[in-house]
Amino acid sequence: MILRAYLSAIIFVTTSAAALAHADCPAVPPSVKDLKLERFYNDGAGSIVDPAKMEEHKAETAPLTAFVGYIAKQADRANSQRSGPLDTARCALSWIKGWADGGAYLGSMDSKQSEAQRRWDLAGTALAYVKLKRFATAEDRVAIEPWLIKCADAARAHFDDAGIKRNNHWYWMGLAAAAVGIAADSDKHWQMAKSIFEDAMMAVTPDGTLPLEMAREARALHYHVFALEPLVVLAELAAARGEDWYGVGDGALHRLVARTAEGLRNPSVFDKLAGVTQQRPFKPGYGWAWLYRERHFGRMPDRIEQPIGHRWIGGDVDVLMRVLTRK
Fold it and tell me: What gap in Å lies between CA 108 and CA 276, rounded to an integer?
C-alpha cells in the first residue's frame, strides 16, 4: 500500500539529504512509483460512495496529496511574492526534480483508480511546473520535462484499451496532456489535448449534458461539474495561446456550462434529466466558474461561489493565467 511504503521509506531518508534542503524547505519526500488503489464506490454506476473505502483511499493517497498540494502552493507563492520568490520556487522545483529522479508514477498501476490518480496528479504537477518554469535551471529541466512526458505517455496508453470509457477521465487526460505540452514544449502533447477536447465537445448533447456522466445516476450533476473543470481549464490554456476552443462544436462548452450552472442553482433539473434524485449537497468544483466568468461575463447568470484553485489544476487559476499571459 502507498501509505505504508511511504512511511517506511521516510525512516531511511538520510541526514545528508535532509541537510541539503533549504532552512525553509522541507526535505523532498520519498517518491511514490507504484500505485495500488481500490475503487471506493459500492455500485456499478459509481453513485454510492462507501465511507470506509473512502477513508482508506484518503489515507493511501495522503503522500500524493501532500506532494502535489505542496508544490502547487509553493508555485503560487513564488509568483505572488513581491520579493524573494526564488527560494520558494527552488524549493518546489527540488521536490518535483526529486520525484522525477525517483521515477514517480512510472511503476505499476494496478487499477483504474490508480490510473485516474496518476492523471489527476500529473495535471496538477505539470501546471504547477508551468508556473515555476521561469525559475528552473537547465539541470531541473533536463530531469523534470522528460519525466512529465513519460508520465503523460504512460497515462495515455491506458486509453488504448477499447473497454475504457472516455468520460470525465478522458477529459482529465486531456488537461494532463495540455499541461505537459506547455511545460515541456511538446506540440505532440498539445495536439493530443486538442484532439481529446474536440472529442469531448462531440459528446455534449444539444441540451448541454454529457451522456456518460448522466449514467452516473444520483451523481450525474457531480460528475458534470467534475468533467467541466478540466474542459474549461483546457479552453483557457488554449485562449492563452491564441486558440479559440470555446467555439469548438458550435459552442458546445457554453451549452455544458449553462446546463451545469442551471443544475447547481436548481438540482431538480438534474433530478429530471437523470431520472433519479441527485445526491445533495453539491460541490461546485474549483476554479472553472472563476475562469469562465472572467472571459464570458454575462453568459453565466448564476453566481457560483467556489475556491479559486485546487492541486489538480496546479493551484490558483488566477496565478496560472497571469503566468501564461505574462508579456
Answer: 37
